[in-house]
Amino acid sequence: MKKLFAIILAVAMVLSLGVFASAAGSELAGEYDVTVWAPKAAVDLTKQQIADFNESNEDGIIINATVEEVSEADAATNMITDVSAGADIYFFAQDQLSRLIQAGAVTKLGQGAATFVTENNSAGSVIAVKAGDDYYAYPLTDDNGYFMYYDKSVIPEEDVDSLEALVADCENANKSFSYELENAWYNAGFFFGVGCHSDWITDSDGNFIAIDDDFNSDNGLIAAKGIYKLVSSPCYVNSSQTDFASGSAVVVTGVWNYATILEQLGENFGVADLPSFEVDGESYHIGSYSGCKLLGVKPQEDPVKGAALNRLAQYLTGQECQTERAASPDDGGMGWGPSNKAAQEDPACSNPALVALAEQNAYAIPQPNIHGSWWDIAKVITTDIKASDGSDEALKAALQKYEDSISAVFEMTDEVRNAFTVIGTVAGTNWDTDLPMTADGDVWTSNDAFEMEAGTEFKCRQGKAWDVAYPAENFVVETAGTYHVQLDAVSGEVSLVPAE
Amino acid sequence: MEQKRHMGLKTLNRVSNTAIYILLIIISVVWLIPFVFILLQSFRVESTYQVGYVIPHEWGWQNYLNLWNSDFKRWYLNTFIIALASAVLITIIQLCMSYTLSRFRFKMRAGLMRFMLILGMFPGMLTMIILYRVLSDLGLTQANAVPGLILVGVASSGMGYYVSKGFFDTIPKSLDEAARVDGATRFQVLYKIILPLSKPIVIYTILTAFMGPWGDYVFARYVAFGTSAGYNVAVGMYSWLTNDQIARMYTTFCAGGVIVALPVTILFLCLQKYYVEGVTGGAVKG
User: Fold this and answer.
1) Does some domain include residue A342?
2) What is the distance between the alpha carbons of residues A166 and A154, in angstroms, rounded to a whole number?
3) Residue A239, in any domain of the structure
4) A45 and A134 share one domain
5) What predicted TM-score, i.e. pTM, was given to this entire model?
6) Which residues from A are below 8 Å from B239, CB to CB?
7) Which secondary structure element, helix H or strand E, spans residue B87, and what is its range?
8) Do A39 and B242 touch (CB under 8 A)?
9) What chain A residue is nearest to B71 in terms of C-alpha separation?
């Protein structure tokens, strides 16, 4: 009995020593039960990395982690189901950030954490975690983009830069060209390639305020012609799967399919950035979105736990862990392209697919926060282009329909809403196209000079709507000539200024 | 002349029969192709992604082994427990309910039936959010989703009394009365007289009660969100279909499909003749 007592005392002493020792480490010291959601491929590595964190951190933080398998694509849907029961730390794809902020499922980063993110990560990934002026998550990767895999036995090396040559090669070899253009994430690349933009504007709460978009423009028409070149070919297949096994010679997809495609093609494996297409003698390199996987931390009731979780998140998104994830599957990694700037320069973090992605990234737009409805509206552009006969009118109609759908859902920016445009039977249009004007004080002048016949009719309208439009009756051109249209927005007086 | 006409009719019969059979064969081939396809794909071991051919180049059990080594076992067990428990409880509750409504006369009986009819018209999905709250407060979500889902499935089952009540109504009341005169209790009447006479409808009730949870996705996903231990097969297997997974899990997914189809198929084959009687049984007025 005495012996037992002695043992108990001894144990108690050791335990109290342990408590003191860890308490001396930092105020964050302690054990925390944490649920982590990671995609299937990353589960084992994440467990290992958390164990490493427990050993290496100097604050005495011990994380008892339950790592559940939840795809980063489903994270927001699952979190929003019930935030209180959701994971404390989770991997998610960046397009879910707004939803997560609105649901109160991600913590706003403090000053120190925000600095950690902005200093260590690539510019694109920093944009991805920003809403308004605040930062909400930690970048894990900067590899969510797409580029081109091809079969070297069908596609000669010199053809990989030209969309037209690729299509011809596929047609001649009776092979398919897989490019999921009936998906806005992919078709938007054509528009970015010709210099168009589509930006959503959010406030600090993650609410969407407006969109600034010029897909329906002269440049947009060039992009539409490029899309038509591919979708009108019999070799076009709307897919981004690993289609080489089912008859494709070109597949546009991302790094997540690298290992499978390497296995499918063997020595015929080829990978490159996206090709260029030619319209009216000009060549345009197809653009793309580049995006990130992010790590979110759920807001905690206990601020100490919250701080400990942020430490863990910084460790998991730091250089060392990103390098481990970038390793090939044979070496225990996943081949994920790092967002950490130091890891990006590490040759150990590279493979042919990541090299192609990096080349494509020169033409890529960092994917900003995008309103959920946009994807469904913008994918229809391709469907309409595919159904059309490829004429300028038909393509313009497809773009106009897109713009109408967008403005029906969302208001354009103030800039677009306040701007005047010329609409009428001007420059080959027939009351279906708004021609831009630029303001100088209250005087608006059309950007282009138009050749006008006598009898040409037009109006100047504001915000592409008819609420404010001048003059009250259509302006009728009396003498044929080339004119700029000028409007005094105060008096509503419209006049023609002959072009030099 | 007469003879000739007779022959013509026979030929016509034969021609129309041939045409009908060809049509039926085409339809059944179309209907069967996906199943054969899944079965064949599940034995393909040379690759794990989608391919452009149907017959595997190399056959093997690897995909089934993969299933065995994944969380699939757990999901399958979950689904089986939910389906079995629901089948037993729902059948008991529904048959008791139908018997009561068919044989007993009590105040508000008609009112109650009408009330349940109206309640049944609301789509079950409407209750999803509040049900989730209730289950979550009871601690029956995520890892404990199995009892939660059984509770949800069983709780409203009394409202599905129509078909079996219709069938019970066709059994003459005089049988009950005779048994009662001989000293049987109400329960004995149900158990010894009514149920043996209503085998088809009992089987039908068991089958539908079993099949409901077997294919449930929406509610199961909602209740078990983010916790593999609480998934059923539909939710678990769907998690293999994400962009970065499908190239590695496609054939395993097919194998999972085959395994999931097995118990339902066996159940159907065994109980088929009752099932057909059951579906139409409640509609016959005796």
Assistant:
1) yes
2) 9
3) no
4) yes
5) 0.72
6) 40, 69-71, 74
7) helix B72-103
8) yes
9) A69
